[in-house]
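Worked example

This section walks through a single chain of length 134. The input is the sequence exactly as stored; nothing has been trimmed or padded.
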Amino acid sequence: MGSMIGILIVSHGAFGEALIHCASHVLGKRPLYLRQLGVTIHDDPDAILPVAEDLIRFLDQGAGVLVLTDIYGATPSNIAARILKPGKVEGIAGVNLPMLIRALTYRDEPLEVVIGKALSGGQDGLTRMPHRTP
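Given that input, the structure is written out below as tokens.
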């Protein structure tokens, strides 16, 4: 039984796939047990739910799954909220690339630790860039 936390991104359109592509570029390889589910305005949430549940089953290697979604309260996050299970499948809204990289970097840690690292990574990644002095 592996101890690696699975990661599922549930987001608008191709955003999740783009995040995975970027993270793979930064890390030099496409990470295992990382998947995404893109949701469009044409999708029926009730039809997508079983797909999300299948992905969770695949991604859970015994240590749990972290679900990352983009905008809290939007359709993708509402779908994500329906697959959460305390201590097994946890969720964070507001996913960005620093958050995903941080979650991937610490995914051998317990789920609760990965959540903390992902949140701090996502927040620390937000910074106003200083002007360069000539």
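What to look for: The chain has a mean pLDDT of 96.
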